[in-house]
Amino acid sequence: MNVISSIFRNLLGKPVAQDFRDSAEHFVAVLRESGISLTWEKGELRFIDALTERLAGHNEYRDAVGCYLGELLVRNFPGAEWVPGHALGPAVRVGGRHLFPLGWVYRRADGGAKESIASKLHKELGVPEDPNALGYFTDTGERA
Questions:
Q1: Beta bridge pairs of residue 81
Q2: Which of 52, 37, 50, 36 is nearest to 102 (CA)?
Q3: Is residue 79 within 8 Å of residue 11, measured between CB atoms?
Q4: Fold annotation for 3-125
Q5: Is the dihedral of CA 65, 120, 123, 81 positive or negative?
Q6: Of the residues 53, 60, 82, 139, which has the maximum number of CB atoms within 10 A of its CB?
Q7: Per residue in 85-103, pLDDT tens?
Q8: Sign (positive or negative) of CA dihedral 74, 75, 76, 78
């Protein structure tokens, strides 16, 4: 990260794409230390609901999970990009659609399974293939 751009962003007080990316990368590093090894592969989208549910009681992680989800979309869908200044909050634009990963995480954490992120992703992007056949994490952090 460029020091000058970091200072400039902090003076403006508005997050930009690099801020969301940095948060996502830091989140991945923290979870690896806790035994949950997240990757940047598209298949990780099958685990977002489980990850959100697992961390729902820890409000400090909601933004980080949302940044991770958004960055997964940016890295796995050609042309996808962060749109931080969107009126409804940070968005990821994919193929002309605006998706709201941070908002989706908050809704899932507060609303439970009826606010399935996988269902929203399936509706908007066609992934995961079956939004009812999702992965989850064991108590030790392994995928199942």
A1: 93
A2: 52
A3: no
A4: Four Helix Bundle (Hemerythrin (Met), subunit A) (1.20.120)
A5: negative
A6: 82
A7: 777 789 999 999 999 999 9
A8: positive
* 137, containing H or E segment: none
- 74 alpha-carbon distance from chain centroid: 10
Detail the DSSP E strand segments found in the chain: 81-83, 91-94, 97-99
The helix, strand and coil proportions of the chain, stated in percent and rounded to the nearest 5, come to 60, 10, 35
Largest Cα separation within the chain, whole Å, is 45
Cβ atoms within 10 Å, residue 102: 22
Phi, psi (rounded to 5 degrees) for 86: -65, 145
pLDDT digit string, tens, across residues 28-64: 999 999 889 999 999 999 999 999 999 999 998 999 9
Domain ranges of the chain: 3-125
CA distance 107 to 38: 22
